[in-house]
Amino acid sequence: MACFDTTFFIDVARRGGAELRRRAMQCLRELEAEGEEAATTRMNVAELLVGVYRSDDPVGQRLVVEQALADFVIIEFDEAAAEHFGQITAHLAALGRPAGDMDVLIASMALAAGQLLVTRNPRHFVDIPGLRVRTY
Predict the structure, then answer these.
(1) How many CA atoms lie within 13 A of 49 on its CB side?
(2) Taking each helix axis from N to C terminus, what angle separates 79-95 and 101-112, rounded to the nearest 10 degrees?
(3) What secondary structure does DSSP assign to 47-99, as a single string?
(4) Average pLDDT in the 102-113 region?
(5) Which of 63, 69, 85, 102, by CA, is between 20 and 30 Å from 50?
(6) Mind listing the domains of the chain with CATH numbers?
(7) For residue 74, which phi and psi values (nearest 5 degrees)?
(8) Strand pairing category for 73-75 and 2-4
(9) What percent of the chain has pLDDT over 70?
(10) Phi and psi based region of residue 17 (left: phi greater than 0; alpha: psi -120 to 50; beta: remaining)
(11) Please, are residues 82 and 66 in contact by the beta-carbon 8 Å criterion?
(12) What is the tens place of the pLDDT at every residue in 31-80?
């Protein structure tokens, strides 16, 4: 499985323009050709729902999000992810480079599930040991 970050869904929805959408979709096709199943985390779903409720059309945007997520496995936060979250947060604090909790939660869930994290913003995850990141 490959765990897709929120940036992927934003780019597929063309909010970043046609070129980012093309790159995001190409990455998805490449990973599927490699036999990877598409996944995302419950935290990414939560981030997408922020956009739903900030939009002028929450009902319509909710349908767009539901359609975008229809073929994705949703990774839940579990005990292993909680363990990774504690380790990552402590590690980043020791480096003097704390990260946002949502990014650390997403990374911890991808690590716990043994998944590659696909994002347009690899710098959000650069100091997290053991996390495999692919960008597009």
Answers:
(1) 6
(2) 130
(3) HHHHHHHHSS-HHHHHHHHHHHHTTSEEEPP-HHHHHHHHHHHHHHHHHT---
(4) 98
(5) 85
(6) 2-134 (3.40.50.1010)
(7) -100, 120
(8) unpaired
(9) 100
(10) left
(11) no
(12) 999 999 999 999 999 999 999 999 999 999 999 999 999 999 999 999 99
What is the SS3 assignment for 4?
Answer: strand
Model confidence, pTM? 0.92
Q: With left for phi above 0 and alpha for psi between -120 and 50, is residue 50 left, alpha or beta?
A: alpha
Q: Per the structure block, which two tokens stand in for 126? A: 């650069």
Tokens of 108: 């911890």
Q: Which strands sit side by side in the sheet containing 73-75, from one edge to the other? A: 73-75, 38-41, 2-4, 116-118, 133-134
The pLDDT of residue 5 = 97
Residue pair 128/88 in contact by the 8 Å Cβ criterion: yes
Q: Please spell the DSSP secondary structure of 95-134, one letter per residue.
A: HT----HHHHHHHHHHHHTT-EEE-S-GGGTTT-TT--EE
